[in-house]
Amino acid sequence: MKLVLLSGGSGKRLWPLSNDARSKQFLRVLQDDDMQMVSMVQRVWHQLELSGLGADSYIATGKSQIEMMQSQVGTEVPLIVEPERRDTFPAIALAATYLYSVKSIGLNEVVAILPVDPYVENHFFDVVQQLEGAINHSGAHIGLIGVKPTYPSSKYGYIIPGPSGQSHEELEILQVQRFQEKPKEEQAELLISNGALWNCGVFAFKLDYIINKLQEKGLPIQYEELLKQYGNLPEISFDYEVLEKERETIVIPYEGYWKDLGTWNTLTEEMGSKQIGKGIVSLDCTNTHLINELDIPVVVLGVSDIVVATSPDGILVTDKSASPRIKETINFNTGPKYEERHWGWCKTLDVQQYDDGNQVTTKRLHVISGKNLSYCLSRSCQEVWTIVRGNAEFIHNGNRMSIKAGNVLHIPAMTMHGLKAITDVEFIVVQSGPLIMENDLVELYTDWEEIEQHCVKI
Q1: Is residue 320 within 8 Å of 330, Cβ to Cβ?
Q2: What distances in angstroms separate CA 327 from CA 16, 23, 182, one per listed residue?
Q3: Residue 109: pLDDT band by 50, 70, 90 thresholds?
């Protein structure tokens, strides 16, 4: 069986830490067994490896998440990259064509689709592995995992099984009768009393099921061809486009811990500490959490059941019960102020626009020892770099030099430049020039060996 983890959304309900460049699954706010801070995607990928599923797993993600994904789970993890964000049906269709035409996976092979951010016990992945046998034994087109509810929640969708079921190797398999999307609590109680299960977004099918669907819709089944038409695919979820129309669907009940960490109130329930970052949460605060990514201390006194979260993108103070409303409240069109990249991170400290049409942007960059920035140029902006920490190699228009803390580098527009960190390096970048256009930056090489080979003057 092959597994595909879907990692596409922006997770804006966890603003200000999550943004278009850093989705919720990349936030390092959970603790692993060694008490190290890890993200949701790191935790899930580690669980897959512990279950022996890592070698057969892929991650479907967008172009904007490639660098962060590789920095968190490694460059060896196979990625299926969406050219743009389109929802889960296009993402799953693209993944299916990749497995079929690029990896030559057989049409009879079972493929399981998982969200990248569930908070579950390791035992959950044992049940995921059982989907293969359940599909083959039952002959169903789609197999689901349904979580046995622990309380009547209005936050989750429900799977309502039919009256009849079967078993396979001590595994309970139920027919799916219908679905119910986020009912009110009173209705949820009635559903649970009739055996309804939480829909945790995990499902499986044989590869030919999706390939046949694409052919029926007149869509390409070759990966490269589907890539070219990706922008024309309907922007619709797999649930609406396929799952709710399919009658031959089964579900395996799962009895164990499962939680969707999509909001601040659910995420903070699983955090190992009530405080991350500089500041103080007083002892008379009950069920209050502080997550501070700024360099200034934040003090929280005498208030309970709240979340205080700060980042370069903004400051949030919310009652936990009200935190899901953040997506409806905040204007997210300001651009991310913090980005995690494969080489380190970048914080935007200040942006100023002037009447003459010029813009000055100030950033702080951290490049990890041994990593490098690409060899690139800006079409319209000049830059001044002030090195505040560490040692590095710098190449400017083919000229190589060693730089260290205290050096100031002037980089005019239309001049090629790149940097490799010898030790961890931090520097302040001041960009000035006309309003920065989307295609202002031109990259020539990203690998440092290629930069040395082609761009250094002899």
Answers
A1: no
A2: 11, 13, 17
A3: very high
